[in-house]
Design goal:
There is one protein chain. The protein is about 80% helix and about 0% strand. It is built from 3 helices and no strands. Helix 1 packs across helix 2 and helix 2 packs antiparallel against helix 3. The chain is elongated. The mean pLDDT is about 95.
Amino acid sequence: MDLTEDKEIQILAAADPELARLLEEHRKLDRQVGALDKMHVRTPAEDLERKRLSKLKLANRDRIVQLVAKHRSAAPR
């Protein structure tokens, strides 16, 4: 599931500035990792940067999932 394309998450982000910021950061990190992935040959420094960005992206995703779960649990049923 692509978090940045999920309609429910987009609706929640419209009302939650932190979630909106995290989604934008996630998109940015995804673009950066994608650019490094497109390189046929990477230097060791570029490999380390890719790993660092991937870890940030995963941490970002975890926080997004936490916020979405929080919103879902607070929503009236």
